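Input record (Table S2, row 249):
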Amino acid sequence: MKILVAVKRVIDYNVQIRVKEDGSGVHTDNVKMSTNPPDDNAVEESIKLKESGKVKEVVAVTIGEEKAQETVRKALAVGADKGIHVKSDNYIEPLGIAKILKKVVEKEKPDMVFLGKQAIDDDCNQTGQMLAAMLNWPQATFSSKVNLKDKSMEIVREIDEGLETVEVNLPAVVTCDLRLNEPRYASLPNIMKAKKKPIEQMAAKDLGVDITNRVQQLKVEEPPKRKAGIKVANVAELVSKLKNEAKVI
Ligand code: AMP
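Output record (adenosine monophosphate complex):
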């Protein structure tokens, strides 16, 4: 079996985001970038399935500018076999990304596509779902446990009410939750070896899909500053404040 795993380069989750003064976006110059965290879980799960012997090949794909290749290299360093970099210097919204991934799926013919549940830069949580719809494949989103069987997968999903177990037939799209596993670190020798692994490059505009963005970002703003909290002396005072000041009870 073969897995295609999608990895996105985003601002590192430890970075304090700075909004541009003109509200046109956030500062990215000289800012540390990393793989989107749930994508690391998607890679880890793919590698674990390969190590279990059930999967033969793991292909990592990214869409983005030249430097986005780093995310593919990182996936190769922890055990992916091959990388694909679809180059684009412009922002592509989830619908365009899903269309590109569909093209890659048609070419690579994987049995499963693993993605992160959500990218932490734009918090869209759309790409996996759109890809599954366009491929007409079953999907399991927010997966926190994956059990691969011969022709299907049993997936545990985190939902508001607790845990839900679903079974999807292969081929399928799986989006991964942070609780799915503990991503490994790449060892130095494996980072060196990864430099020799192949990364196929192609340009997004040559794939024959319409990647025109349909959503226009009007403005980015800092969230309002939170007021400092206060301490109350006892329960009676708390109840009084909730009732008379916050007016929530
Ligand atoms: P989103 O729908 O933007 O929240 O992204 C969900 C998931 O889709 C991410 O966690 C990635 O696995 C995948 N994805 C989104 N954008 C890209 C991209 N530019 N390159 C590769 N994978 C992506």
